[in-house]
Amino acid sequence: MSLRIAARRVVASVAATAAAGTLALVAFSAPAGATGPASGSIVPGAASPVAPYTAGTPFDSGQSINIVVPANSAFAGSHLAVNVVECAAPNGVIPTSTTACDGLTIQGNTILPNADGSFTYPNYTVYALPNSISLGEVPGGPNCGSTSATECILYIGQNQNDFTQPHLWSQPFFVKANSNDLGANPGDGTPEVPFAIILPVAAMGLLGAVVVIRRRRATTHAS
């Protein structure tokens, strides 16, 4: 494969990634009155970190986050309260049993969605589970942590003891345990893997390919 073709493929890959991000933003920024996510759907960004935080790191146990839910068909027009609880979702798989959710993590205040089903609930606390420090728990319940096998998710719905009732899920996330549940090292809930360097590395590869191509052209013209 020539360097010119390789460079074109890198450009196409970076452009496709940027386009996908743009489409995702457009899809999430649906116009008013849109139906939105249906019951049982994952809502990207529903578990939203509060600034300041460190990107590319798990939430820190005891960290406060915002629950941000857009207009949706799950809660629209129901006028019923919604609960939020933390659940185990190994490998990011949505749980199918209510035993995967920890009732002690339920939010403190009542959540009444807007007419279109949307709402924002501030300062929800996420914990590494089971949690003996703040919740007085012993091993054996839902397990949420900072590994793929202990990935976490939030149930957002009308009855955490009945998954047939209207509900949504946050995006899966990770929570790092600590010794005090103070959330002193807040993150964005992503794993401690440097995924963020992928695009810069791709850009560096593109730059290198372009430099090589220009040098070859210069050599050709000189000869």
Topology:
Elements lengths: L2 H26 L13 E2 L3 E3 L9 E2 L2 E7 L13 E6 L12 E2 L16 E8 L25 E6 L9 E4 L4 E2 L21 H25 L1
Parallel strand pairs: 1-9, 3-10
Antiparallel strand pairs: 2-4, 4-7, 5-6, 5-8, 8-9
Keywords:
single chain; about 220 residues; alpha+beta; five-stranded mixed beta sheet; three-stranded antiparallel beta sheet; 2 helices; 10 strands; globular; disordered N terminus
Explain this structure to me?
The protein is an alpha+beta fold and 223 residues long. The protein has one domain. Helices cover 23% and strands 19% of the residues. The chain has helices spanning 3-28, 198-222; strands spanning 42-43, 47-49, 59-60, 63-69, 83-88, 101-102, 119-126, 152-157, 167-170, 175-176. The strands form 3 sheets. The protein has a 5-stranded mixed β-sheet, with no helix packed on it. The longest helix has 26 residues, at 3-28. The chain is globular, with a radius of gyration of 22 Å.
